[in-house]
Amino acid sequence: MRITTNIQELQQELRPIGVELVAVSKTKSIEEIQEAYDAGQRIFGENHVQELITKQESLPQDIAWHMIGHLQTNKVKYIAPFITLIHGVDSFKLLQEINKHAQKNNRIIDCLLQMFIAEETTKFGLDHVEVIELLENPLLNTLKNIRIRGLMGIATHTDNEKEVKEEFYELKTLFDGIKLNYFRKETTFDILSMGMSADYKIAIGQGSTMVRLGSTIFGQRVIKHYKAQ
Fold first, then answer.
1. Residue 229 domain-assigned?
2. How much is the pLDDT for 118?
């Protein structure tokens, strides 16, 4: 019942302030996800396409699945029939591929542009110049089967709260600028996905509208250590 309690407490915290909760269910069992579902959670995020497909087939069909990991263009076709939101769009080429497979499935797929805001070079994402180039690409208006809903970013993994706060502040400032300049008349540009278990409270303080929480809901991942034979 620990998962149930965690979901209920988080919803009581987040719903009144209008922040959407994505339960990060990567590596979690069907049973654990089902418990979260039974507690009222409907949005789940996965990092790997194969794991996502397996879970989507095995769990209730009203779950809104989010792809929150790095998505390769050759994997888009497998999730296009059902995916609700793709968080990690980091190239125009990927947007084109999502549009192609959304069209084949007679769907419009919502997407977030992933921004590179961290100090770590291992993170994916667009920089400020690249995102403007993408938004000003004349071919963007031809992609009728995708909808850009907002931005996503992952802060540096650090205990330095000031640094994390500054990264989130920068992303919120960029979000506001892009909304004003490119989506002023579109009410659907409304998602700022930032904040994970370690830093979601800081993210909310900086204007996040969607947080991605794993260990806060399901507990820490159990890492097995094996002795050398």
1. no
2. 87
